[in-house]
Amino acid sequence: MKQIVILASGSGSNAENIITHFQEHPEIQVAAVLTNKKEAKVLERCDRLQIPAFYFNHTSFRDSDTVVKFLQGLSTDLIVLAGFLWKIPENIISAFPNKIINIHPALLPKYGGKGMYGERVHQAVKENGETETGITIHYVNEHYDEGAIIFQAKTTVNPSDDADSIAEKVHQLEYEHFPKVIEKLLS
């Protein structure tokens, strides 16, 4: 059985979508969800879905091997960033080469990098008059949003769209494609 660990910082809608997808695929299991925010809504979702969830602080993530050892103890096959906003430290990248993926709410290399997440991305897409946007699933390396691209999906941006409607279109692409790409990577 393949083991996934999800890292999330916020509401956890993508994490929940991944968890429910793999409940119907017993050969792949979400072993745990880790978060860097004590009040993250993803913790409530995990409780409801009966998935082990753990909080970690900045020190255990950046300045020690605590998180690396935890991930290794779970025999993690793939680490999935689902709305996780911290940069992954070198010790974790080294311990899991080409086994950490992220989803970005734009068509990289556009609108990527430090500080480009969520609403900020959709607002920039709108302000720059883009006619399309989408999602990028990519491997994680030592630089924000610069790892090798695994998959992209596009959606049209209409002149009448605002940042919220763009976000909704992008979320639909995330929900549709992220679990399938994870499944393909682990098959």
Helices, strands, pairings?
Layout: E1 2-8, H1 13-22, E2 28-35, H2 41-49, E3 53-55, H3 58-62, H4 66-73, E4 78-81, H5 90-95, E5 100-104, H6 118-127, E6 132-139, E7 149-156, H7 163-186
Parallel strand pairs: 1-2, 1-4, 2-3, 4-5
Antiparallel strand pairs: 5-6, 6-7
Helix pairs in contact: 1-2, 1-7, 6-7
The coarse silhouette is globular
Structural class: alpha/beta
CATH topology of the domain at 1-97: Rossmann fold
Mean pLDDT: 96
Uncertain segments are: none
- The SSE order reads EHEHEHHEHEHEEH
CATH architecture of the domain at 1-97: 3-Layer(aba) Sandwich
The total of helices stands at: 7
How far apart are the termini?
Answer: 11 Å
CATH class of the domain at 1-97: Alpha Beta
Strand content: 15-25%
The name of the CATH superfamily of the domain at 1-97 reads Formyl transferase, N-terminal domain
Number of strands: 7
Please give the largest β-sheet: 7 strands, mixed
**Gyration radius from CA atoms, angstroms:** 16 Å
Chain oligomer state: single chain
Q: Helix content range of the residues, please?
A: 25-40%
- Arrangement of strands in the largest sheet: 3-2-1-4-5-6-7
